[in-house]
Amino acid sequence: MAKGMSKSALIGYLAEKSGHSRKDVAGLLDLLAETAYKEVKANGEFTVPGFGKLVKKNRAARQGRNPATGETIQIPAKTVVKFRVAKAAKEAIL
Known about the structure:
The chain is an alpha+beta fold. The protein has helices at about 5-20, 20-45, 85-94, and strands spanning about 45-50, 50-60, 60-65, 70-75, 80-85.
């Protein structure tokens, strides 16, 4: 299975296509990520139009099973982040 585009390759591609410097593009990507993390933490979601939405979800505590021993264990509640792909992205890819 081939690996996707690396961050460095993405920065180079975007810099070339936009005519901006690699430093400016890297700064923009870092700012986008920082903003997304902050917004999800504060508001529970962050939307990137055309790509999708980061959503914070609370997962309830539940019972699980240790596959090695078959023993029943208690899995604690936790908060997770999920990514929902936008309809436009699905249609463009599939």
